[in-house]
Amino acid sequence: MPGMFRKAKESTIHLLLLLCALISIVTTAGIIWVLFSRSAGFFAEVSLADFFLGTRWTPLLEPRHFGVLPLVNGTVLVAAGALLIAVPVGLATAIFLSEYAPPWFRQIAKPVLEVLAGVPTIVYGFFALTFVTPQVLQRIWPQTEIFNAASASIVVGIMIIPTICSLCDDALRAVPRSLREAGYALSATKLEVSTRIVLPGALSGVVAAVLLALARAIGETMAVTLAAGMTPRMMLNPLQSIQAMTGYIVQVSLGDTPAGTIEYKTIFAVGATLFLITLGINLIAQRVLSRFREAYE
């Protein structure tokens, strides 16, 4: 009797886990279906060449242009700037927590870093508008516009620091202690062991962490919308206003655009493009992990 009860309990748990997995798969499939089925109506009126190669994006104004490159330019500009801030800070913090920090400090610092990931993104957007731009950027470069790519990059960089730090810390701590001791036995300093033995040994995890953080930066919405503005343009000046793909989706989703129009359908085309970009980044991260992963015993 106890054996039958145990078997029934295991079967129930197995069924619940399977149900959770199916819910995740069905939800993802539903998102993909909505994006690409609605995008089909847009591409029935706008050619793929005009959309992916056009350099003007004015779907809400006459004359209408549907070139998505200005939105991609704004998204990449913000994400690249965020990585320039987050990667050095996050990786250095991970090395410190993994190799230098005493256990008591690590137990305090890790939860504090995780708080950054729990702050609502709209708060970061207001922080960029009320502090980063007027108190930092405009004091250094007076010509900085109120809405600009630099402030968006700064706050998004702060947002993804916990992601890079946490994943890199886990990767660094997975490197066996014996490799560190071998380095010390050869008279290497702590810095040399950290940067020339531990970091290369955890390189696959570090690269994957950076790519996952990049996907997070590209998909960020409210902070970028508030900080960067709504001016789609092809330029590389971070002190000017730009518009990211997520910012445009927010703009059209406010409710002023009639459903079923070509303007309304653009949000699904842009959303599908954003989905493909983030999917590609995640596939690259998985490829890096599987290709360069170090198996330690």
Rg computed from alpha carbons, rounded to a whole number of angstroms: 23 Å
Can you tell me the overall shape?
A: globular
What percentage of amino acids are in beta strands?
under 5%
**Separation, N- and C-terminal Cα atoms:** 41 Å
Report the CATH superfamily of the largest domain.
MetI-like
H-E order: HHHHHHHHHHHH
Fold-level CATH name of the largest domain:
MetI-like fold
- Structural category is mainly alpha
Please count the beta strands (DSSP E, at least 2 residues each).
0
* Whole-number tally of structural domains: 2
Helix content: over 70%
Low-confidence stretches: none
CATH architecture of the largest domain: Orthogonal Bundle
In short:
By secondary structure, this protein is an all-alpha fold. It has twelve helices and no strands. It is globular.
Write the layout of secondary structure elements.
Blueprint: H1 2-43, H2 48-53, H3 69-100, H4 103-118, H5 121-140, H6 149-173, H7 177-185, H8 190-201, H9 203-219, H10 222-228, H11 245-252, H12 262-292
Helix pairs in contact: 1-12, 3-6, 3-9, 4-6, 5-6, 5-10, 6-9, 6-10, 7-8, 9-12, 10-11, 11-12
Describe what you observe in this structure.
It contains twelve helices and no strands. The chain has helices at 2-43, 48-53, 69-100, 103-118, 121-140, 149-173, 177-185, 190-201, 203-219, 222-228, 245-252, 262-292. Helix 3 (69-100) packs parallel to helix 6 (149-173), helix 6 runs antiparallel to helix 9 and helix 11 (245-252) packs antiparallel against helix 12. It is globular. The mean pLDDT is 88.
